[in-house]
Amino acid sequence: MNNKVLCIDDDANILTGIQRNLRKQFDLDTAVGALAALKMIENECPYAVIVADMQMPSMNGVEFLNIVRQKYPDTVRVMLTGNADQKTATDAVNKGQIFQFLNKPCPPERLAEVLTGGIKHYRLITAERELLENTLNGSVKVLMEILSLSDPASFGRGQAVRDQARQVAQLLQLKSTWEIDLAAMLCPIGCVSLPAELNQKVHAELDLTGAEKDAVARVPQVGHDLLSKIPRLEAVARIVLYQNKNFDGTGFPSDAVKGEEIPLEARILRALTDLAKLEARKIPRFKALEQLRQRHGNYDSRVLDAVATCFELTTGNQPEAAVKSPVALDFSELRAGHVLSANIVTKQDILIVGAGTKITPLILERLRNFASLSGLKLPIHVEG
Length: 384
What we know:
Number of domains: 3
Strand order of the largest sheet: 2-1-3-4-5
Largest sheet: 5 strands, parallel
Distance between the termini: 42 Å
Strand content: 5-15%
CATH class of the largest domain: Mainly Alpha
Shape: elongated
CATH superfamily of the largest domain: Hypothetical protein af1432
CATH topology of the largest domain: Hypothetical protein af1432
Number of strands: 9
Low-confidence stretches: 314-321
CATH architecture of the largest domain: Orthogonal Bundle
Helix content: 40-55%
Number of helices: 15
């Protein structure tokens, strides 16, 4: 548990006094001036509590604590000053979002009391965040397992698209890629609302009735409604909602959003998912990309250019990237962590797990049940 405390002042004598009085109670560091403190923070692990003097040369306490807030929002911030005017207090609270405001001279007992309270507050903040992150990770894992069982073809394609989407997002200078990672995997989650027979017709590209087309069109909305109920997945839910939206504003959902207003992550996934569908028909990648370019209004040209750059297909006649030969395995040799290079089907040609899927313990258990009850077509092909 992090209990580290950092005290900053431009007066070394004051810092020496704080060290002398509190070093037995706290894991305490000191720094003379804000610039020295910033260097220390960069080199050390995040502090639980930082106490800063208001009046310091080169940078005052409010400016310093505002920087700390932006870089280390969990760190508890305390202001220590001899200038007790209202503006100083207001700036400290509004800009630095401080935990406590103390006036000089501050008795050691009072400072110790505030530091103890600050450490408890830090523990509370980090415990809540860790709980939320663990809950989020658990919820996402459950959803992915459900999708892998209910729609193995879409799940396998999502795993393959995820790594490609991350590369394209980085090329387009997307600041964070965790949302597109999750969205790539969870875009088809709305398919759990479709009957299994309809899912099979969709993947086989068979003709659909009007009612079936309506049900398939609502899949992004179903996925959005499901994910938006999970804390911190609101942005991912919006990406899922707009996964089929055309760049010119046509398509689902039928709203005024178009062009750059569509989440960039959704525009990336739209292009990569449609590219993967064409490749599944054995169309070479560079030809598939040219087909996408010919669908005017459907895609962001900047995204297609980034896709071409990532796949080195800018000339339109580049050879396909070298692919490692798949490895043929007996079922007894299949392990969690293997990535499938081909679908796994039963002896009755029922799809169980799609190509591109990374085998998890749950998927392996499901395959074991099918192997014993229905039988699987062997060998199983995995990436080399």
